[in-house]
Amino acid sequence: MKKITSQSDYQQVYNESVEQPEKFWAEVAEDFVWRKKWDKVLEWDFHKPEVKWFVGGKLNITENCIDRHLKDKANQTAIIWEPNDPTKTSLHITYQQLHDEVCKVANMLKNNGVNQGDRVCIYLPMIPEAAYAILACARIGAVHSVVFAGFSSGSLVDRINDAGCKVVLTSDGSLRGEKKIDLKPIVDEALQNCPGVVKTIVFKYTNSKISMQAARDVWWHDEIKNTKPVCEPEVMDAEDMLFILYTSGSTGKPKGMVHTCGGYMVYSTYTFQTVFQYQQGQVYWCTADIGWITGHSYIVYGPLAAGATTVMFEGIPSWPDMGRFWQVIEKHKVNIFYTAPTAIRSLEKAPLSFVHQADLHSLKVLGSVGEPINEEAWHWYHEHIGRSQCPIVDTWWQTETGGIMISPIAHVTKVKAAFATFPLPGVQPAVMDEKGAELFLNGVEGRLTIKFPWPSMARTIYGDHQRFKETYFSTFPGKYFTGDGCKRDEEGFYRITGRVDDIIIVSGHNMGTAEIESAIDEHTAVCETAVVGYPHNIKGQGVYAYVICYEAPQDEEKLRTEIREMVSKVIGPIAKPDKIQFVSGLPKTRSGKIMRRILRKIAEGEMNNLGDTSTLTDPAIVDEIKNGAL
Ligand code: WT7
Q1: Is residue 378 within 8 Å of 342, Cβ to Cβ?
Q2: pLDDT at 70
Q3: Whose CA is nearest to atom 12 of ligand 1?
């Protein structure tokens, strides 16, 4: 595989990857352990849609993430685990230990009836067992579905049932800053509505008093006790399912994105190595939670397959104080640091003394992910964290893409504040106008699509291929539609401008406004709701809810609190509305469609620029809403 060491190399490799994509990806894939080589690199049809990579190839991703490193790296640290509480000891887990632990968990799963192809729900805090669980599933060919441990029991029910999970792995509780959160009761509540779950394996972590249901619930420490630290990896087909991960849709329930073994392995690893230019021996830290795609691809699979040392952090950036991230960087001499703009913006507000107290000289590369990074945050990050010497890789990608798509290559390609810059080799973006024509020149703005497959693209929505086709392949037939708007400037740099559909990104978490609306509607006082995003100086976007009640509320603040609690219960605390405005009606067209454009403008504070309101059934409602805006 040709190494990219300069902007002109990049251009050359990129061109080759577009001219001969199969040759390009076959060369990349040669660097992995395959039990049987593929017969054909790629089969694809974006109209059906159907995509297969490394057809006929056989492998196990954990053999690539673990076993192949044992020859020369058995004693190298694979995972550094940094606990929530800085006074507790961190763990250095070597590749050999990782092997043994993963095999033990794999055997524990087998003993509890998990077979190849079965779906396993993982609902665990950021502890090493979460990584072992993910890899153990992959080792025996079971399909993991990780659910972020901040989600409520209702969200857990939807995800468990949709994926048909048979077993749930969880813990008694989790730790976040000074809070202890009991997880098992959330699982108990969920399982009342999940008839397919036959077993839960509970890791004892916080020692909270919880109840165990005989026959269904077993303790992790009992089950793992006599398991062997050896478990042969199951030989999987390149196109077998590796995992399902849920992401919000602009309508309806969350979508279970399906990722497969071969292509996902090749792409997550290649992009990890390329974007961050990871050098052997370096310490790499991605602050995401393992419950999101960023955690899957860039805490677990990509870095481990590359033989890296990856930090897994249980805590939060603000506890015990706003210097926690910087202290962890100093403590573990982190060389590559990858976080989200929302975290940067909140840390930027804290006194700089928190940054200056820590020695950040180990840092070589900084990364950003999850939402557009504004210029101010970019400059602060560059100057104060990167000492104006570390490139920032602003990585654009999605749960659906499985890996980074548009990003600078650290120390190699140019960076530009607030721009994701250039597509990685193998990625073919196309900017489309609203009529569906591709904009070929530079200096254009439109919708971002991808016109050629890449190995880690999601293959389908679990159980609903029709929805997969409608959501991603019908807006611009023959192309994958990302749902994002973008600009390509005069010099060809890409800047992602944000979602163009009804998805909002709050603190880097992707949420469907429809989902939040239906959670608010569950409150008995509420008749109808419309939710939009608005610019929020820390979260990126905040949640603004317009709520119609059956009767004008007596105590607005009390009802607001109840509504927030309802959303927290139905979806999870991350989806709680920041602003709730009670209104007597919503701006609707004659066909009954809510004109969200108007609501968005009002929420953004752009009262005088509402555009055409003549098609509304009741234009007067707009004035009422404007006058009551928060
Ligand atoms: C959406 C995907 C990528 C993993 C975490 C989020 C937005 C993501 C960037 C970026 C501008 C970004 C997009 C995308 N997004 N990264 N660097 N610049 N926007 O994954 O939850 O599936 O969300 O996040 O709008 O479509 P996700």
Answers
A1: no
A2: 98
A3: 371
